[in-house]
Write a structure and sequence with these properties.
The complex is a heterodimer of chains A (644) and B (630). With 644 residues, chain A is an alpha+beta fold. The longest helix of chain A has 18 residues, at 618-635. Chain B is globular. Classes of the chains: A alpha+beta (644), B alpha+beta (630).
Chain lengths: 644, 630
């Protein structure tokens, strides 16, 4: 029996806001009217007085649809709040049907101005996919005004798989969600509390079914800090995942476990891979003449990655109509379709690969304790290899054989298997894997003109940043030339050579330098020995005592650069960076400087490493900030030579 | 092709890039494909009927092309109806496949400044693309024009092997003008028709500093009918506005209420400008002709939101209600391109501001005045009527008078866009410096900072402020940072902090030296190489002053002043000794116009070079007094 029609193979919900009841707006209280600023949160442009959501899940098969009702009240506190919160957007679709939108502006003097119909605009983002955005422009918004709005969405699935997010970027006095579940459905609650405000709940029974109300009060604004964790990691969230539904006395498992969740998707995946003859033929054709297993896998992977265009998708579902051979023929497919196609093609050359459901770290942490397929947004392949694993990303053009893009490293993932799914953590690279290593040799001539050469080798994620940076070798060289010229102010950069190796995930770069004639001073030469890898700039200006959120960078990395400068007779060192080292818990910066006066040569070796990518807690942030401060300070020093 | 006067605020020159889509460029940028054939036709058949045709054949040369050309979009609107669209993919082996209905879509998207608009797109997705494929695209659009004029930027970042553009008109008064870099284009014309052809045209890859529009790209403008002068264009807009109800009692009552107690016309004007700027929020809704025609002032007043047209017309009516004459002024809000004064056409504008005759209110030389008008942009939210942001400075605006109209250059006021950085420090015998630093921002940088002050928690503001100094002086230590808005008619902010710098004075003891960083006024001379067209570098003033009390054993350099000044602006570096063995280094740069024409290029380079040289060489303090050496 196929249950897939019961469950939400969902397109994403993009609710900007969500939350409860319907029809009349509750009266405005004296407290709400009097509020002008929130203690401890000065400058907040607005405050969410309340946002409430009510989710009534479909009673299958008696009812045709589920619904979500959202009721929001916002007070404008500053001039900026007018433009930031005077308009609202509601995303919906042919599937998530917007049934009602109402709103009003209540002025500080109590005057109520209803939201006119001609201030509600529906934008059809795609006619064929039936995707819409409804925009609401509140009238007469001024500081002190209260904006009320309400909307209602209906859909035909049994579940609502988007977590309710309690926090906002502005303070929120009350945020709550109520789930009303039909008696024949089992739900698994999941919640995470960010911050000290307690998540509270109450259960009830009504004629509609059992209900659970979950709320949090007095939530501060989620800080918007540079290099911060994603918003969702900083917000309290709650959801109810459908475990099972009882139909005619039979309990049908839904998202009871990863096994049952995988089962819900397995049929569609199987159907997609039903027509694979052409795909497998293509795989054989691509690997003809290749004896080595790795070379064969790499060839098929490269084909799917590069020759099949990636279409945007936001879930792990696949359309019932799509087939592997059609994706091959059309040369385009979603991330999921490309992964399934690659799996089919590998099967054609007798290579078994597992499907992995994966989640981008920059979209937030996931929790595999609940079997919610919505945690994931893409698929990778994993192949067993000599006791270890090979990973293939069919969508990222910069990732070669067995390379994971940094946003998947160290994340929780699921090996898709309808019988024995497996929770895994994807491997992560170290700072030593992600390295930039180079050397620059410079010579001063008797006229005080600098010339020389440089080379760099980038590996791991450091290489990933630039592999396939441009589409053609010519464009790549041009881009690197521009980048080097921006680093070497005052120099002509020439003979730039770039070698990209996607399989070993390495990039080799070399160049020649000649100081521009009009830059030559004749009696003074300044060299910045940190270039081109440095100089470091301080990215973390916020003092540790004020930083509220953890730092998330893309990957740890390390840099090594040796700069050699030689000069002619008659020139002397005027200013020399000192050998120095700063080493802390999250990395180090080290300069080693040697001068050979007799040979008229200085060698400056620079090593910088940042050993982590996530920095949680004030001490760790402080160490990171110090590392960058020390790096910026040490990199700022130049070598100056003068003629005597 | 669908120009609207709704591009309200500085960041809002968005529609123009979208309009290019119509003329045969994919919605996404195609980096390196080869356009084998590009034929564009405009057939002006009647005042309300224009047939636009596009024929394209594009060969995809690499993987990037496949991605970039996977979708093609045709821009449509209430007055732009799709008549026919066909897409075909020819595979490298010659197999042809047409784009089916399932691969076509209608997409509405109001991005940038527009909350909602009627402009939409018909998209075609090309299936089965691979390197070596050729796309064939045919599009026919029927247009009922809102304006008797239009223009086409013949931009392409792909090589074009064969280009043909034909604009023909069955209507009287047809005129056209081709501007910009036209190398490789051959023009042929006859009454009622212009025909351009080009072969083997290289992709355009303008330098980052180059101005846009006709300065960088061939631009064909055309118009028809009787609007042959700017006065005629003004009459067209006046007629358009005449359909709106004006002279409303509510407006008059509000104007009276807002100006109560304000005695002089200038005071009244300031009160009304402040109301329009601050109490009516910017929201752009542009449906059909609504892209050009404002809402009635009473409607704008009722909902208290509107775009540049709505806000301007409301301000005009409020001013007129107090007996202060004011006119709409069609302007171009464009950081990169200018109005072509020689070709009168409403299609050149995208913004509406207000012009007040300077004899209607008290004015001073500091005001944004030009040719007898005080220019006011009601979409600004900071500053008084004295402040006109630089994006509408140094352009042309068409003042729509009661009778006729005048094309007037908008003012240039570098002093409104200034940054002043100062350090006052004591340097000890070891070369370490300690003291205070300060930054005074005016104009757009201050506006951005003020927004942050108003909307971000103090720690976030402090982070931004500190970041400016940390990037300037990475080796320094900073403390006690503070900031405040300055009560000024131009948005202004002051930031101050304490600074310590190790080894500011460094080098050999016999000849210690200073490397004093400055804010940059001009681009690096290197970046000016290879530019052979008009470039854009905004109006501004930038000044950095280091005042250093030096240790007694160090000799101070002789007073010196180096100045480079020309019609574009100036750069000056002054070294002087002030009291208490103090050295002052003062660097001042000024740019007096937004655009630099090619003939002024040498002057611009001279300014850039003067600034660059002043900062490259360390300031040497040639001697150390004997007493210091012991």
């Amino acid at each position: 029996m196929k249950y897939r029609n019961l469950i939400p193979f969902l397109c994403c919900l993009f609710f900007t806001t969500v939350a409860v009841n319907a029809v009349d707006f509750p009266p405005i209280t004296d407290t709400e009217r009097a509020l002008t600023e929130l203690p401890g949160q000065p400058g907040a442009p607005a405050v969410v007085l309340f946002e409430k959501a009510e989710v009534k899940l479909r009673d299958y098969p008696k009812e045709a649809s589920s619904f979500l009702k959202v009721w929001v009240r916002v007070k404008i506190l500053t001039e900026e709040g007018k433009s930031s919160y005077g308009e609202e957007e509601i995303n919906h679709s042919g599937y998530w049907r917007l049934k009602k939108v109402e709103g009003r502006t209540v002025l500080p003097d109590g005057q109520v101005i209803a939201l006119p119909e001609d201030a509600i605009f529906e934008e059809r983002r795609s006619r064929s996919l039936k995707r819409f955005v409804t925009k609401v422009v509140f009238p007469a918004v001024e500081v002190g005004a209260i904006l009320d709005y309400y909307y209602e969405i209906r859909w035909d699935d049994l579940a609502f798989l988007e977590p309710w997010v309690f926090h906002n970027r502005v303070p929120t006095l009350l945020s709550e969600i109520t789930y009303i579940k039909p008696n024949n459905m089992g739900l698994v609650p999941w919640g995470v509390q960010a911050g000290s405000q307690r998540m509270q709940s109450a259960s009830d029974k009504s004629t509609l079914g059992a209900s659970i109300r979950v709320w949090i009060e007095d939530l501060p604004a989620v800080p918007d800090e540079d290099f911060s964790w994603p918003f969702s990691d900083l917000a309290s969230r709650f959801m109810m995942v459908p475990k099972s539904v009882n139909v005619s006395g039979t309990s049908i498992p839904l998202m009871d476990s990863w096994r049952s969740t995988c089962e819900l998707y397995a049929d569609d995946y199987k159907d997609f891979q039903r027509k694979t003859r052409e795909s497998q033929k293509k795989a054989v054709e691509l690997t003809q003449g290749l004896a080595d297993r790795q070379a064969k896998i790499a060839a098929v992977h490269a084909f799917v990655r590069d020759e099949i265009q990636t279409l945007a998708s936001f879930s792990v579902s696949v359309s019932e109509e799509e087939r592997a051979d059609k994706v091959l023929k059309d040369r385009q497919g979603t991330q999921v379709e490309k992964a399934l196609l690659l799996q089919s093609m590998l099967e054609g050359i007798k290579v078994d690969a597992d499907i992995l459901w994966v989640a981008d770290r920059t979209d937030g942490l996931i929790d595999l304790k609940v079997a919610n397929p919505h945690w994931f947004d893409s698929l990778l392949l994993r192949i067993d290899d000599a006791g270890g694993h090979i990973y293939l990303d069919p969508n990222d053009r910069s990732s070669g054989y067995n390379h994971l893009p940094p946003y998947y490293e160290g994340t929780a993932a699921l090996v898709f298997d309808k019988k024995k799914p497996q929770e895994v953590t994807l491997p992560k690279s170290s700072h030593e894997d992600n390295a930039s290593r180079g050397k620059v040799d410079l010579v001063v001539d008797t006229d005080g003109r600098l010339s020389g050469a440089g080379e760099l080798v980038l590996t791991g994620q450091d290489a990933w940043r630039f592999l396939r940076w441009k589409d053609t070798p010519e464009e790549t060289v041009e881009a690197w030339q521009e980048r080097l010229e921006s680093k070497y102010e005052g120099f002509e950069v020439s003979e730039v050579k770039v070698t990209e190796d996607l399989v070993s995930q390495q990039l080799d770069l070399s160049w020649q330098l000649l100081q521009r004639e009009d830059e030559v001073l004749g009696d003074e030469v300044t060299v910045s020995p940190a270039v081109p890898l440095g100089p470091i700039t301080q990215l973390f200006s916020l003092p540790p005592e004020l930083r509220k959120t953890p730092v998330l960078l893309l990957f740890p990395s390390s840099e090594d650069l040796t700069t050699t400068v030689r000069w002619p007779e008659g020139w002397v060192v005027d200013l020399l960076p000192e050998s120095s080292e700063h080493s802390g818990p999250v990395g180090s910066i080290k300069w080693q400087v040697e001068v050979d006066e007799a040979a008229r040569q200085a060698t400056l070796q620079r090593h910088f490493e940042r050993t982590e990518r996530e920095f949680v807690g004030s001490d760790t942030y402080s160490a990171l900030r110090t590392l960058y401060a020390e790096g910026a300070k040490k990199d700022a020093v130049s070598l100056v030579l003068v003629s005597e | 092709m669908n120009r609207r006067f709704g591009v309200g605020r500085v960041r809002r020159a968005f529609l123009f890039s979208l309009s290019l889509v119509v003329w045969g460029t994919a919605a996404t940028v195609a980096p390196a494909a080869t356009v084998l054939e590009k034929r564009l036709g405009v057939d002006i058949q009647a005042p309300d009927r224009i047939l636009e045709t596009t024929v394209l054949r594009v060969r995809l040369d690499d993987v990037g092309d496949v991605e970039a050309w996977s979708q093609y979009a045709v821009s449509l609107d209430e007055n732009r109806e799709l008549q026919a669209v066909n897409g075909t993919v020819v595979s490298p082996t010659g197999k042809r496949k047409s784009v089916g209905r399932k691969q076509q879509d209608k997409v509405e998207y109001s991005g940038g400044s527009t909350t909602y608009g009627s402009m939409h797109y018909h998209t075609m997705d090309f299936p089965g693309l691979e390197v070596g494929s050729t796309l064939e695209i045919d599009v026919v659009v029927m247009v009922a024009p809102y304006l008797p004029a239009d223009q086409m930027v013949l931009w392409s970042d792909d090589d074009v092997q064969h280009l043909e553009v034909t604009v023909r008109s069955a209507l009287p008064g047809f005129r056209w003008r081709l501007e910009g870099p036209t190398d490789g284009l051959v023009e042929r014309s006859e009454p009622g028709m212009v025909h351009l052809t080009g072969r083997q045209l290289a992709a355009f890859d303008p330098e980052p500093l180059a101005a846009g529009g006709a300065a960088s790209y061939p631009t064909l403008r055309w118009a028809w009918g009787e609007a042959e002068s700017w006065s005629d264009v003004a009459a067209w807009y006046r007629d358009l506005l005449s359909s709106l109800p004006r002279d409303d009692a509510a407006i008059k009552a509000l104007a009276t209420e807002l100006t109560a107690g304000q005695e002089t016309p200038r005071q009244q004007l300031e009160a009304l400008v402040a109301y329009t700027r601050q109490k009516v929020r910017y929201v752009a809704v542009e449906v059909g002709i609504g892209g050009f025609l404002p809402s009635s002032p009473v409607e704008t007043l009722g909902r208290k939101w509107g775009d540049c047209k709505d806000k301007s017309l409301l301000l005009i009516d409020l001013l007129r209600a107090r007996g202060i004459e004011a006119y709409p002024a069609l302007a171009r809000l464009d950081e990169r391109a200018r109005v072509e004064a020689e070709f009168p056409s409403a299609a050149q504008f995208n913004h509406l501001i207000v012009a007040v005759p300077q004899d209607a209110v008290e004015v001073s030389d500091e005001d944004p005045l030009s040719e007898g008008f005080l220019f006011i942009d009601p979409t600004q939210t900071k500053g008084s009527a004295r402040y006109l942001h630089t994006a509408v400075q140094d352009q042309h605006a068409l003042v729509v008078l009661q009778q006729g109209g005048r094309l007037v250059p908008t003012p240039r006021r570098p002093q409104y866009e200034s940054i002043y950085l100062a350090f006052n420090m004591q340097v000890d015998a070891e070369g370490h410096a300690k003291g205070r630093g300060g930054l005074l921002l005016r104009g757009s940088s201050a506006t951005a900072f003020l927004y942050e002050m108003e909307n971000a928690p103090p720690e976030r503001v402090g982070e931004s402020a500190l970041g400016i100094f940390e990037n300037l002086l990475p080796s320094a230590r900073f403390s006690k940072i503070g900031w405040e808005a300055v009560d000024d008619e131009v948005p202004s902010v002051r930031i101050a902090l304490e600074v310590e710098v190790d080894n500011l004075l460094a080098g050999r003891r016999s000849s210690p030296s200073l490397q004093l960083v400055s804010l940059q006024s001009m681009p690096s001379p290197r970046k000016l190489e290879g530019i052979d067209t008009t470039l854009r570098h905004g109006i501004h003033q930038i000044r950095t002053v280091w005042t250093l009390e030096m240790p007694p054993e160090v000799c101070l350099p002789a007073a010196d002043e180096k100045t480079e000044e020309n019609s574009l602006g100036m750069f000056r570096q002054t070294l002087r000794q002030t009291g208490n063995h103090t050295l002052q280094v003062d660097r001042f740069g000024e740019m007096r116009q937004n655009f630099v024409d090619f003939e002024d290029f040498e002057d611009f380079k001279a300014l850039a070079l003067a600034e660059h040289r002043s900062q490259r060489r360390r300031i040497r303090l040639k001697c150390v007094q004997q007493s210091a050496d012991g």
